[in-house]
Design goal:
This protein is of the alpha+beta class. The chain is built from 13 helices and 16 strands. Helix 9 crosses helix 12.
Length: 443
Amino acid sequence: MSFAQERIWLHSQTEEGSLAQALPLSDDIEGPLQADILRDCLSFIVKRHQILRTTFAIENGLPVQLVHPATPVELPVTGLDGNAAPESIEFVVQRERKRVTNLQTGPLIRFSLLRIGSSRHRLIRTCHHIIWDARSTQIFLGELALLYQARVDGKAFPLPEAAAFQVGEAARRERDMLAQDPHYSAKVRWWRGRVTQKRRWLGLLQPRPIPELPFARPEPIASVEVEDCFMRLQIPGELTERLGELRQREGATLYVIWLAAVVALLAHWNHGTANTLGTYMTTRRGLAMRDLIGFCTNLVTLRLPCNFRLRGREWLARVGKEIGLVRAHSLLPYEELRKEIERSGGTMLPVQAMFDAPLGYGREDMSFAGLTFRWSKLPSPREIPWGFGIFLDRAEGGQICRVEFDARKCDPARIRDFTADLLKLLQALAEAPHRPLKQLLSE
């Protein structure tokens, strides 16, 4: 298995940990859906991609991937009336999540179809994170559209039965490349200087304390409601346009603009002290891996000290340069880096918050064969490995910002204030990037 899969596998060795890795995904479907054709298309996709029929066993104390023969996909259909309560849908979602948590028995992806009306359905895709990432959603929906349209038109499926490249081959290639990399030590040194926890002398050398997230509760509470762990912000169209203009003027991507704003605001709220962020970067390199379904991402750690004297555009340039360097070193697996730092007596900075902007990864509405597919991620009461995450997506009507957090440890009211300040900072940055960050943050 790949290094990234190994990390997910380690986190999934308890029932709670594995449940945290179960992804509930949903496609709202409008139009005259033919469930039998949909089932055939899903079966073909699972046959095409070995990872979707893979389980993980233990051999000689180590996890290994086992690929199973292709069999027709089960697609149970549940009828709901047009006024189905959210809890009815949530019941199906939670039932399916619990069924994908056993990595040894599988299957690690399951499908359910909810019939809400004659022309309204919801396809629930529940899968374990060890076989799926954001890019996989885009690949899956693209292939589903091609296959479904062909079958409706009475044609043969236009894709080969087996993808040209499989996750198992990618994992072997990754490990071989790492073992033969002549620059491995230099890459470790580069990362060590950025993500090793600093030490101070207090009679003994001890790691410096990591500052809490600025919206952490003084004391964790025992339990919370699921809806208290998620926020969904629709980005105003005018702000989206302004940020697009800023991107063109300053040569910064939307990813860099949002990341720069999040880092600066966290530091501002934390009285100048930086928190440690994590982000996902793809390990799909080359055409062979472009259309590969699977968990092909690496977790990288970001610690960006903020200088509030910098002008907005200077801060964007600094963040953009750092991200460019991070991408160039992003193939060094997270767990291998952590082990190297620990071997040298150091401690790797823990990821406190996540940021990602998988724009374009299957979030747009799709129309084919008289159907409209609208993607959504369903909230789930999962244990969030980090306390707080901001994820920028596309959705109907423009861009949205999803905020996920552990409400037992973070105060939802404070997070609402933070997200409001974040939109204000983005607006100020778009309007006056020549002004110092200190002034932009005081708007």
